[in-house]
Amino acid sequence: MNRWFVIIAVVVVGLAGCVRFQPHPISPSETAAKLESRSLNDTGFKAFLEKNLQKKFADWPAANWDFETLTLAALYYHPSLDVARAQWDLARGGEVTAAERPNPTLSAVPGYDFSATSPANPWIPAVSFDLPIETMGKRRYRKTQAAQLSESARLNIATAAWQVRINLRSALIDYTTSRQREGWLQRQLEIQERVIKLLQQRLEAGALASSELTLVRIAAQKIRLDLLTTQTSRADARARVAEAIGIPVSQLEGMDFSYDPGARLPAASELVTEAIRRQALQGRADVLAILAEYESSQSALQLQIAKQYPDVHLGPGYQFDQADNKFSFAITAELPILNQNQGPIAEAEAKRLEVAARFMALQSKVIAEIDRSLAVYRTTSAQIGGLDALAAEQKRQSQSVEAQVNVGVADQLDLANARLDLATSELVQLDTRIKLYQALGAVEDALQRPIDSIKPGLIEQSPRRQAMKENKP
Description:
This is Outer membrane efflux protein. This protein has helices at residues 2-16, 28-37, 43-53, 67-77, 79-99, 138-204, 210-245, 268-271, 274-283, 285-306, 342-406, 412-447, 463-469; strands at residues 64-65, 105-109, 126-133, 256-257, 312-321, 324-333. It is of the alpha+beta class. The protein has one domain (68-451): Outer membrane efflux proteins (OEP) (Up-down Bundle), CATH 1.20.1600.
């Protein structure tokens, strides 16, 4: 009787430690409302920003937002990082699973002897255990495989964070340059309309053919269309900035933000040294993630090779047979006769080769990205130098014509045309500078540096995510 009590007590204690299911239903209306309410004015985000920037904001919300603070906002709000963090949690759960040892099993086999006669007890209860013992280090290989997959998932958070940074920078460049381009086009249109007015006076005086005025009016109409396109692009870029951060575009109303790469743009020779190039090929987050995945495939192959050797099952048993206590002890092992796990081994070997091929392809892609982006940046930098010189020359020409107007050598039409040429050259200069900013960003993306705004541990955890886990609003 005492034996049965002990067995039942062990089972009850084991069941008491089981996890209970807690439902967490998703309400589309509630989640939509939460997404719509996200704002840069949020006090939780303010605390997050102050902690990571190591400074206090006396005025909140902030009046001006630069690339660094907006990047922190994207790391705080963007849903793709929540997805990447959840995938890491899933991988860490796999580590727990891999470390678990197989449970023993208990079998109760009640028997009845129909031929038993009184006073003999016809019941013949029996109990047997099955204690599995893994061999050849299978558990160690499982744990190593799961740990490497978890590390790969953790590094994928950094890759997701960098992609968020890419999208934000691209949207900010487009927004900033669209706004600047809109101002230059407005100025160009004003000058062009001044030219049309002067030419109209000459046409009325009979000193100009109508066809010449028509060409100028067509040019003015083209500027108006360019201005309208630029205004549309600015609105689209503003919406993409909000999307890159992870907030509704309405929350950006009244906020001033722009992209400024700095007063000094580095020379191409300063951007990529041999050490920096090597670091990108060996230390980019996506490179390290696939390396971890490769190590996981190695452990997976080791596990399948170890599975060629059978596990051992120990089976102690007890039977109470008509006042006789009978004990037994069984040793069970699978006989690797019909197969030696060759199929799974072949699959694991093929998986390792596939991951190795993807790693080589990624490194080849990184090399191409570095070379291409650096070539574009170098060429665009040279173009900027030439355009700066041209703009300076046209500015001197405009000033010269203005001086001639003051002494009566040139007229207002000459001055308007000179200013129009200057505005056109400055617009071309702006367009080329946009390409230079984009080329610089492409170099940073190829190298995945600098990441000064992403501090250690920041991309892996966030107060908002912790609040979600604790079911806080």
